[in-house]
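re the bet — no i am not wrong, look at it urself. input seq straight from the record:
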Amino acid sequence: MSSNPVDFAAAAPVSGDLSVRWIHGTRGRGAAEPRVQAHAYDEHTYVLRQSKAVNYEAPFLFLLFGNERALLLDTGASTTDTGVRETVDGLIASWLASHPRDRYELVVAHTHGHNDHVAGDAHFAGRPATTVVSRELAAVQEFFGFTSWPDQTVTLDLGGRMLEVMGSPGHHRAAITVYDPWSGFLLTGDTVLPGRLYAFDYPAFLTTLDRLVEFAADPSRSVTHVLGCHIEMTTTPRRAYPLGCRYQPDEPPLQMTPEQLVAIRDAARSLDGKQGRHVFDDFEIFNEPGMKDQLGLIARGLTARLRPGR
């Protein structure tokens, strides 16, 4: 343990920086993007994005430093590209150079268990002082200490940086949402983001959204930003990039507001019983999508790729 621990409670939430232009694909022109872009919200909080050259999903990942351990949420969409491991190791080494410790741990967990969020797990297997939490629901419950899933809120202590963790099924049965009082981030995985919200279990999805809205509205908390793991909308209202798109120059910010969280919840409530795809200004909701919805997404993606100049 360091003799100069960071006080993660006194100044929370810290005023950080999200004025960033994310890598979004190169359309085959100019210099190649880095495999992973790392942006410092503050010196203890990093938002990472995997390049569309690695995988069209271009997922976002989150690295949070505490006094005793760091948390990496998600490992990206590639089983072969080592860019996430290399980037995380470099960021940890840099942080430890400024905040020396005799021992420092890394916890690798996931917003949920879909392949584009866990594909890089193997790159962290065998890393010293590292715990990789399995994607399976039982493993998630055991590691975080859930005894009443998903209604319970539990804590994860990174060493003075106390995170609140909630079960958030609906998109994925083992999905979690993480609230970080230090940054004010509400990390929502694929449950809430500026893009396609796939609700495979709609009753659970609605319950999760109600829980998140209630959580964010609690005056004892200060939610500064709602951060999901993808950007799929354009800045034009009601227009999303097609599935599989590898060039997205007209993206909105990743961060959403608590007010947008409420809007998503209200929109989802209005669709109860209405299966299929529903388009809104800042997001799309897929209410228990069926084969027709999936084929429609694929067709739109293929059509976009065949257009001249794509």
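see?? The CA atoms of residues 21 and 45 lie 17 Å apart. told u. also The chain has one domain: 36-306. so pay up
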